[in-house]
């Protein structure tokens, strides 16, 4: 990013796991810069799902840098995650034909349950497999794999953690960090959001706000995908040697496994 320093910009890290995001400032103008950002960002900007895209440039290293309006704000709290505006924005994303067509033009193939399960099985270390709840969860996944026509798949964010929901000082809500975007069953997003943030007795109302009905089929799919993603989180934290977080996800996984959805 030396090029931007030479042009008089002040750059500060904007955090994030990749270390490739910056807050850039010059003459009072603030931008959010990101290296190697997903090209999907332009479509998301046009739909108002992320802060407005200002420009895209290829720099001397060959990397592509995107610049978006900098939004002063904060991430959502746990309690705010079951507000209606969260349900509304997620529904807008899942219903967008523009976003779906964009991913298809990028030649992205649908991610089916068997693909997810194969990826998980291939990624697990011997250490993670020593945990009883992991082995139990893998058996559950094999025995209860959802069957859904990929023609009904939508754009899925894949990481609806509250840290990725930005509420601006002007009360604008955005969903950011789209590196894991895919074409898949929207229950992937719904399950992780509901299990993590919404009291179970409020699931039917939240799903009505989202625009769908609670059903046994939907609950089964949400549980299945939440189990898959939770195992992935256990593996990721084990690799990072963040054992406290790993144990937290093992506990969460065990709670999900014990959730009774008539299976």
For the sheet with most strands, the description reads: 5 strands, antiparallel
Low-confidence stretches: none
What is Rg? 20 Å
| Number of beta strands | 10
CATH superfamily of the largest domain: Aminoglycoside phosphotransferase (APH), C-terminal lobe
How many structural domains does the protein architecture include? 2
Strand order of the largest sheet: 1-2-3-5-4
Q: Mean of residue pLDDT? A: 89
* Residues in helix, %: 40-55%
CATH class of the largest domain: Alpha Beta
H-E order: HEEEHEEEHHHHHEEEEHHHH
Query: What is the molecular shape?
Result: globular
End-to-end separation: 52 Å
- By helix and strand content, what is the structural category? alpha+beta
The CATH topology assignment of the largest domain is: Aminoglycoside 3'-phosphotransferase, Chain: A, domain 2
**Percentage of β-strand residues:** 15-25%
**Total of DSSP H or I helical runs spanning 4+ residues:** 11
Named CATH architecture of the largest domain: Alpha-Beta Complex
């Amino acid at each position: 990013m030396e090029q931007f320093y030479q042009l008089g910009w002040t750059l500060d890290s904007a955090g994030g796991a990749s270390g490739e995001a910056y807050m850039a400032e010059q003459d009072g103008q603030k931008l959010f810069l990101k290296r190697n950002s997903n090209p999907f960002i332009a479509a998301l900007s046009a739909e108002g799902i992320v802060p407005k895209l200002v420009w895209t440039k290829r720099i001397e290293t060959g990397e592509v840098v995107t610049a978006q309006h900098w939004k002063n704000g904060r991430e959502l709290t746990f309690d705010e995650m079951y507000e209606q505006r969260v349900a509304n924005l997620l529904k807008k994303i899942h219903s967008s034909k523009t976003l779906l067509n964009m991913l298809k033009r990028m030649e992205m193939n649908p991610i089916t349950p068997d693909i997810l399960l194969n990826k998980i099985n291939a990624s697990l270390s011997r250490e993670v497999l020593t945990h009883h709840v992991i082995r139990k969860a893998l058996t559950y996944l094999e025995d209860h794999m959802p069957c859904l026509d990929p023609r009904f798949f939508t754009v899925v964010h894949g990481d609806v953690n509250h840290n990725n929901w930005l509420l601006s000082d002007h009360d604008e809500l955005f969903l950011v960090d789209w590196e894991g975007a895919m074409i898949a069953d929207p229950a992937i997003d719904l399950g992780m959001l509901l299990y993590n943030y919404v009291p179970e007795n409020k699931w039917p109302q939240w799903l009505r706000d989202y625009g769908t009905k609670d059903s046994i089929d939907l609950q089964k799919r949400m549980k299945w995908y939440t189990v898959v993603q939770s195992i992935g989180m256990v593996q990721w934290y084990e690799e990072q040697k963040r054992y406290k977080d790993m144990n937290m996800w093992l506990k969460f996984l065990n709670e999900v496994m014990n959730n009774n959805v008539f299976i």
